[in-house]
């Protein structure tokens, strides 16, 4: 029964992705992000010097190309997809990650909002069962000039998670520097479960907990273009003990992105 439920969820989300593509084609104009009645379509593309997922490099410390499409409704419901190139030898997930997600967001008050949804990670070129689901929820509050977010994501026991679960807690803060085009941000995450960096270590311990963190700044440079730089760190085993070779040393990441 559980397997049937999971297959139904996979088919549902794949259907949502197809609907997203059709809807995007139906409303596409030279200005890609637009309102069509109560529907908003937006897109984003980026090139990063390293793709880090919760502190672990999924691109082997090399460049990655990323992009996504989001469709939102004025009611607060939304669906979307996002993809990134990978380094196959770094994760065992193949050369592509595709995320499908859907959820609901809204305002609780003038200074507090929420977001809940379900995310499905797909690795089309991977061998074996690697795809998995992860529900998520977050609260965002305006605190003076800053925006503070606290969130949680939980992957239950699935075949692709080695029949173990994973809890991820995080906090983000961001604010713009007055009278400048510069925004700064900070992130702190806590992993407890199968996706701890210890999972990637040949000689890992039974301690499946870890912290990851980052600080960064970004700036709009021309039209939709934005440049950013961040310093990312993670509590992780040393590189010589890595099973697949993902990079987990502290690093500086540069980003060039555009939103439409």
Automatic annotation (TrEMBL):
Keywords: Signal. It holds the Pfam family Gcw_chp. InterPro entries: CHP02001. Residues 1-33 form the signal peptide. NCBIfam families: gcw_chp. This is TIGR02001 family outer membrane protein. It comes from Croceicoccus mobilis.
